Queue: 2 jobs
Job 1
Amino acid sequence: MNVGKFYNVKSVIHDISAELKFLFLVLFSIEIFFINKFWVYMIILFLILFLIKLSRVPFKLFFGNVKIVLPMILLTSGLNIFFIRQGNVVLKFFFVRITDYALNLILTMMCRIITLLFFSLLIMFTTSVNKLSQAVIYIFMPLKNFLPVNEIAMILNIALRFIPVLSNEFDLILKAQKSRQIDFDDKNIFSKVKNYVSVLIPVFILSFRRADDLALAMESRCYNPDNNKKKVLKKIKFERVDFYALIFIFVVHVLIFFLIISG
Amino acid sequence: MIKFEGISYIYNQGLSCEKKALDNINIEIDENKIIGLIGKSGSGKSTFVQLFNKLLKPTSGKIFIDKKKIGLVFQYAENQIFEMTVEEEIGFGIRKYASEKKIKKILEVLDLVGLDKSYLKKNPFELSGGEKRKVATAGILVLEPEILILDEPTVGLDLKSQKEILENIKNLKQKFNMTVIIVSHDMNVISEFCDKVVFLRDGKIIFYGDTYKVFDLNDFDLELPWTKKLAKKLVKKNFFVPENIILFNDLVEYIAKKIREKEN
């Protein structure tokens, strides 16, 4: 699993300022909930694939992550398909009725999650954790009187920073349990779940211990979120690549806006 | 037979963060001996041991191991504990055994790692670091491995626990005549407990042979065991010490013998 890992290569997407990328991600995450046409998602997905190509991050890293989430998406979609009764029936067997409305809704939902996942992964792979948390501070700074901006940035920073660490730990404990003859490829789903408990319990214990240690280490180094407020943030330099990115974002948003309206 | 032929292993192959951990490893390891695996951090030791029980598949090359049961005790083995009693924790690998046979085996391995039966119903999370590691090792031993691999078995333990664990390993090897592979950074452990040593550097095998010989390599860049350090200092002061003396008791014996000879 490569969630949260910065993929360090030189590319146009890597060069775009983290603030702009984060802002685009936030706007995009909101907009995507207004789109309910399958073909619009296809256009957006195509655009994201183009951006991935520009980023020089291998496609297999993205697909690997989608593969992990896919069973969950399929499970929720599978449950929905049987319970939505609205629309015209397109398939009927025994007591199950599948409607065109349910199919469209599920397809849209799946596309929404996959598109969002691809886009968030693109941002994470092309932006280092430090830059991302700095971007959060910049963007939310106007709200500092209402929101603990520094604390949010620190939480985000730590959360993102420790995803790869926990992922490695999970992998290591999985291997340790495999060497104790615990079968994680068991066909029986109940045994499989039971066997995974042998990994989850140690991972939870380790992550709590790690959180405890980190809190103590931060305290012993006199971490005080209020001190950060006195820090002078460095000015954002608006490079040429950011200007092009801004034009791209504007064009994409106008396109999405017209697609939503026309839909 | 434990044989590696042209083994290479690359992490994240094809990505920008690709790293070659093992590079064309060719070795036939002696059986029924305690083998030390040494090298600096990042030299490929942990990758090498994970190839034994197929937790990793080599990028290229072939592995020939005619033993079926290979037990691997990971670094900080106590982190893999998850059951609520020592009995359940050790018995997890043999949970399909009949209860009488199971408890007999658990008691057997508990004794092998130097714990008594009063530990059976204890919560493993409430034990000391050394005891936890003994329980985790017992969880592997209960599977009766023919090859036992221990990745840094003494790291993070106090000296007394280190000694206990290593003595247990030595007794185990003598009792079952198994092949034991110990990965360690501690050369005192290696010199005292290992018959032979594999020395890795940048994913390549630099040396494989008798333990005492590795410390006399010209390009040996690890910390020497302190007995060897003392022997080398004595040699510098014109007091000859044979190169195969690397154990404390042997060195004391030798010096005492020389003093007696001089007195006579």
Note: The mean pLDDT of chain A is 83.
Job 2
Amino acid sequence: MEEFIYFFSFKDPNIVLVVAGISLLSISAAMVGTFTFLDKKALVGDAISHAVLPGVCMAFMFAGNKNPYWIVLGAFTTGAISTYCISYISTTTKLKEDTVIAAVLSIFFGVGILLLTQLQQTGNAALSGLDHFLFGNAIAIVWEDLIVYGFIASFVIIILLVFYKEFKLIIFNAHFAESVGMPVRILRFVFNSLLVLAVVTGIQAIGVVLMAALLITPAAAARFWTNKLHVMLLLAVTFALFSGVAGAYISYVIPKMPTGPWVVMVISFLAFISFFFAKKKGMVSRWYSQRKYQKKIHMDHILKTLFLHWEKKQQGMTQGELINQFQGKASTTRQYINHLINKDHLSATEHYITLTPSGFTEAKRIVRLHRLWEVYLSKYLNLAPDHVHDMAEKMEHLLTPDLEAQLEASLDYPATDPHQSTIPRDHDV
Amino acid sequence: MIVKVTKPVLEIHDLTVSYGKNPILWNIDFSLPHGVLAGIIGPNGAGKSSLIKAIMGLLDVNSGYVRIFDSEMNAVRKKISYVPQRESVDWDFPASALDIVMMGTYHKLGLFKRPGKKEKELAIKCLEKVNMSNFQDRQISELSGGQQQRVFIARALAQEADIYFMDEPFAGVDISTENTIVELLKKMTKDGKTVIVVHHDIHSASRYFNWIIMLNLHLVASGPTDKVLTEELLQKTFGGKLALLSDVGDLIKQKGFDPLKN
Amino acid sequence: MTFDHNAFLIIITGALIAISCGLLGTFLILRRMAMIGDAISHAVLPGIVLAFLFSQQREGIAVIIGAGVLGIIATLIIDYLSTKIKLQHDASIGVTFTWLFAIGIILITLFAGQIDLDQDCVLYGEIAYIPIDLWILPNGTIMGPRVLYVALINVILVIFFIMYLFKELKITSFDAEFASSIGISTGIINLSLMGMVSYTTVSSFEAVGAILVLALLVVPPATAYLLTSNLKRMILYTLIIGVFTSLIGYYVAYYINGSIAGAMAGVSGIFLLFAIIYSNFAKRIIIFSKA
């Protein structure tokens, strides 16, 4: 706990440095990542992040130390070459894009590893920390790093905001963008450069191997909460920011822990939470609304059963009779009957369960929808009367008042269904 | 107008299918007699391809069933041939025309067995039937659209099936290929095969088919060509979708699940 | 140029691994599943570490099973995310493998004291140490390099797999719908291919590392794909390229004094470059001169 307070009180200037750095890079990565995600190019980011490794090593060979200017230059160069290779190879050869991405990724990374191991063999003392570029070490960020990486990240963020409208249009509909005279090729080039830059900012803190996650995962998580691009960007940035700082904190508390994997763990956790629990699109909420719908179906059936019984015999049913209509579902039926009584749709007297006036209206509506759909099927879909029941059984729970009105109008308010049963309406006596 | 058939080879009972969550076929119910050359026609997005995919068991159905030769699909699969849309595969695949046609013999071989001389001879014969014998060793990406389609038809012939389902075999092919294929299909039905073709051109439909199935999310008509190819039914088929069915589709899309699935 | 016993052993092992990977990779790229190969090669890591922790040995069957299971789980998670959760396919891959790989790295760091695995080994393997890692029978007989046997068994199983399921793999790769229409289960064929990819990844892991397996899975088949349009010839070329990748990769690494696996990936890239030049330029020139 003490560590926690110390870390987040930001008394230590080094911690401020680290948090500032990781925050900026998380924001820029999440923003760029959101666009690449929507452009269905998420894995290109993975290829680029692996492809910066040979550039990093070459810069080190050239400069002889971890000078961030050289590192950035080297990383940007090979990263940019890799994006160019991917688009060149997949447009000019018959190789498919996924194959090209995988090939470019592994070849560049292989060369990077070759150079890295060569460097390690030379035993250069300044080399220590070069392998931090693999899995990242946010704690090792120094003032000079922050200036370089922070500047790049801010640059990426600003350019993205300036060209927000243009990038949005290109991703949504490139052909349209071209037709209204947008310089699509130049904008794509700018965007690809931003993508490489966003990756470059992450190599020190997150590492090349896992940088892809910071591009892809925040956007994937955010997508489940919204359909609006600006909200999605905001959410992705928030998720990335949180996981970036959390990852930095963990590797501060446990110094031997590399930062990258922890950032990825936190962001993946947020993503899985989103996949399962997001409102509307999440797995659990979809499952919940499906259950709710099944419950509604069952209660609709209880009302309908009572109505049909009343239609035939003009009287209520005993609880036993009613429950017997739902074989194997006695306990849920009992529970729903009580629920309907509470909703004032049913009333229970000593012997009978009967529909209250509001229950009666509701039951009528269900039966009416059923019979109207049967008429619809036989009139518009030419189905024989013995074929219409099953579908109507599903539609009676689904149709909204709007659709009911449409249905009535297009059928011209029929009096009976194809089985000659009367279609009940509210003004009936 | 839906003409009922006694002793059908294919019987479709109240089939309802969703694609994703979007209901694309509503209560399809018809049967086909033996030996017809049937065309499935309807506008774009009418569910023509989905219908034959659902029959083949490639799409999940919400309700209803399909019976072929009065049995389940899986029990008679060896007697059925399916020709997917030409665009559905990658023609850069490293294979020759003959390789593709040989695939038509795989279902009889079973697991682990490889095609041998007998299968090769059959495949060559099938390529001859579609006038493609000169191209048997040609790489498939070097064939024209019409030639690729002929290869697909030859593969179907190699299956030596009794019922053929073909998805848009005339899409993007030249006139001579179209004529070759039509002649071939007519000959096949004369030999007692039943052929069902998804087709997009109403004008040629009356010349090609002796049975027509009209589809537009729901079944508009099914019957002998001279009986069903009327102005009224064509208007019903191509005159736009039923507003209610589309609206219900939109309603379902907003839900997180498909309420029409059982 | 040196060609001693050790060099020979390393090159042979590298070639065997390249053959296994190339055979499976051919079908991966034809099915447009190259990035699934990437995902599996990352995702096996936590399986290896966990199995290692439980069985306390690196050589055991447990590691192969643990990693194989993780590889299959990864493909199932990807499939679940994209079909059930409805996350787009490329993002499903990206989210899944980075997550699993991160777990693996964290486990390695946590249990660094208890397991003889480190981050470097994960990335690029230790093929150079193959000659000194010997398989010794309980009675003291020295059978030779252990990893060579591992690679040999792997290659035999992969060859059997490809031979026996050749027609199923071919038809499901070309036309999955047609395959299902004649009753071949694309899902099962797919899963068994993924299983073999996972197994091969683990088996090659010690030698070339998790990530560079991907180079061997994808690059030689991609090269061969550009050179021929006949499946059997494509496989043949893949194998030849794989063997030469191992041979040349060894000497490149020897002269640069760097990782052999890294050099192999680089060499495979040179082959691919040549194939791209050939297919984009030379072919046209040949056609042009003929005309």
Note: Chain B has one domain: 10-253.
